[in-house]
Amino acid sequence: MQDASHTAEVVVPPSALTEVVAEERQFLRFSRLNRILHIVMIVSFMSLALTGMTLKFSYTGWAVILGKLFGGFESAGYIHRLAAVLMVGIFVAHIANLVQRKRKEFGSWKALLFGPDSMLFNKKDWQDFVGNIKWFLGKGPRPKYGRWTYWEKFDYFAVFWGIFVIGSTGFMLWFSEFFTHFMPGQLLNVATIIHSDEALLAVGFIFTVHFFNTHLRPEKFPMDICVFSGRMDFEEFKRDKPLEYEALLKSGELEKYLVEPYPPIVIRAIRVFGWTALTIGFSIVVWIIYAMLFAYR
Ligand code: HEM
């Protein structure tokens, strides 16, 4: 599956290229649509995690405080449902965008799914994984990554899995009367366990592994704002994604993705949003660990 990122935006005209490359060096990695989808997904996921964990650990002090902030446990449940609708909306918008791109840009699913910038795993991902372990151990060079690294692909499909498992069981809990017309009621208990534990896994994964891979690894520390600004420093792009850089250079398409940077006020606003999300995410992890260690029922 290919991403929808390379949609031209504030494209720098070729005449001004030399100047801009020398001064600004910004590479457009994410389209406006993908940036908006990611921001809305953060808002909906944070809301789902906060309200969901408040319900799950309702017997702890922190959940009681959060519950009050949400207007009570019942209203936390309503906010949870609202955020769930938002998340499903994002998922549908992403799939619709893929279908549209298949029609307009690729012509066939084969071209979209198995092209060089595909999100699907391939042999090179395995080679990169092995190469990366060797690099960690100081026994080889850093693998030359293309548009997507194997861990970025993993994170992408983790969302598909989460939407499928957490979403389907969530709708069973929401519309329990409807579902019990054709399935035994005991399955609702199973759905609750799956929903609750899978949610715990998703929260644990995103607020630790995904946060580390994206923001806390030494090259990106303390925060990578690329998915919000859509832009990355040109030198960083060459270093981080050398195969994509070489391919764009060879095809003569690189110019299309050189854009002007955002003004500092926008970058500041992005950082405030990013830090807020990181703080909420890490706090939820701490609260869960506390609940599991000292208050678990
Ligand atoms: C399409 C997505 C989702 C739907 C439709 C959904 C729906 C629901 C519903 C109806 C409940 C019961 C709420 C109540 O008792 O008032 C619930 C509980 C819960 N949800 Fe979700 N949810 C979704 C996604 C998520 C996500 C993404 C997370 C966490 C990241 C999450 C975490 C939880 C937790 C922890 C509970 C409490 C379960 C328990 O009591 O043990 N949910 N969800």
Task: Write a compact overview of the structure shown.
This protein has a domain at 14-31 and 107-295: Fumarate Reductase Cytochrome B subunit (Up-down Bundle), CATH 1.20.950.
Features:
297 residues; 13 helices; Fumarate Reductase Cytochrome B subunit; mainly alpha; single chain; two-stranded antiparallel sheet; 70% helix
Summarize the SSE layout with pairings:
Layout (H helix, E strand, L loop, with lengths): L16 H7 L2 E3 L3 H25 L4 H9 L3 H34 L2 H6 L8 H14 L13 H25 L1 H4 L6 H31 L9 H4 L1 E3 H7 L1 H10 L12 H32 L2
Antiparallel strand pairs: 1-2
Helix pairs in contact: 2-3, 2-4, 2-9, 2-13, 7-9, 9-13, 11-12
Largest sheet properties? 2 strands, antiparallel
Total beta strands: 2
Query: Roughly what is the average pLDDT, rounded to an integer?
Result: 92
Order of strands in the sheet with most strands: 1-2
Provide the β-strand percentage band. under 5%
> What fold name goes in the CATH topology slot of one domain?
Fumarate Reductase Cytochrome B subunit
Taken in chain order, the helices and strands follow as HEHHHHHHHHHEHHH
Span between N and C termini? 42 Å
Report the total helices: 13
State the name of the first-level CATH class of one domain. Answer: Mainly Alpha
